[in-house]
Amino acid sequence: MSIITVATSKGGAGKTTLAQIITGTVAKRGLRVAAIDADYNHSLADWVRTFGRYPITIETELNETKIIPLAERLAETHDLVVIDTAGAAMQATVFAIGCADLVLIPCQLSSADVVEAAKTSHLVQSAAAMTRQEILTRVVLTDYQAKTVVAGHVERELEVCGLKTLETRLHRLVAFKEMTFTGEVPGEGAAAAQANALLSEVVALGALPLPSKELVS
Ligand SMILES: Nc1ncnc2c1ncn2[C@@H]1O[C@H](COP(=O)(O)OP(=O)(O)O)[C@@H](O)[C@H]1O
Ligand SMILES: [Mg+2]
């Protein structure tokens, strides 16, 4: 029903972490969730298959000609399809962006993250021009350290580049790292609150068919 693509050409920016947070948290709420791992390292697929904590339908697909038919097929039988993409330039990423209702661009607090977020945003605009429709895009600040000079600097730089950010920041929290070893998304504390706040914003943007109150545990 809804397709969210997580993309940025910066490696290690938090794409897979964000895809885990979204798919795990939404599946936990009882929605039908599918994920497509379009990265060579297939970290998202490994996470889903190794732990199997949530009923997430997981597919791996690197072939650019197969991404859109696969996403559309999964969207017919699921409430949400999340596509995790590679950091390196791949045609599959362009098509994953082209079929998305929302593109989320994770960005940490470094210059390279901002540069690659801007490049990825340009790629989204090109895909939008190609498909002749707007593609909703938001930057997600992650591994975030509040009240630091660099955080303020990155936020200003993103604004100068004309990049819109979600209001929710995913802070640098150990719970987001533990998740990679346990297979479970945070269920309480600051990390869970941030995950829920992020999803409420996605709902408000119209990119997730769920009443936002259902995300408040
Ligand atoms: N909000 C966060 N808090 C703590 N660590 C984070 C956060 N976001 C990402 N990371 C860490 O950053 C590293 C890279 O993240 P990953 O999601 O694998 O990036 P990508 O998929 O873009 O290559 C991982 O070690 C991950 O645990
Ligand atoms: Mg990844």
UniProtKB/TrEMBL annotation:
Signal sequence, renumbered to the chain: none
Gene source species: Rubellimicrobium rubrum
SUPFAM superfamilies: P-loop containing nucleoside triphosphate hydrolases (SSF52540)
One Pfam family it belongs to: VirC1
Name of the protein: ParA family protein
InterPro entries: DNA_Partitioning_ATPase, P-loop_NTPase, VirC1
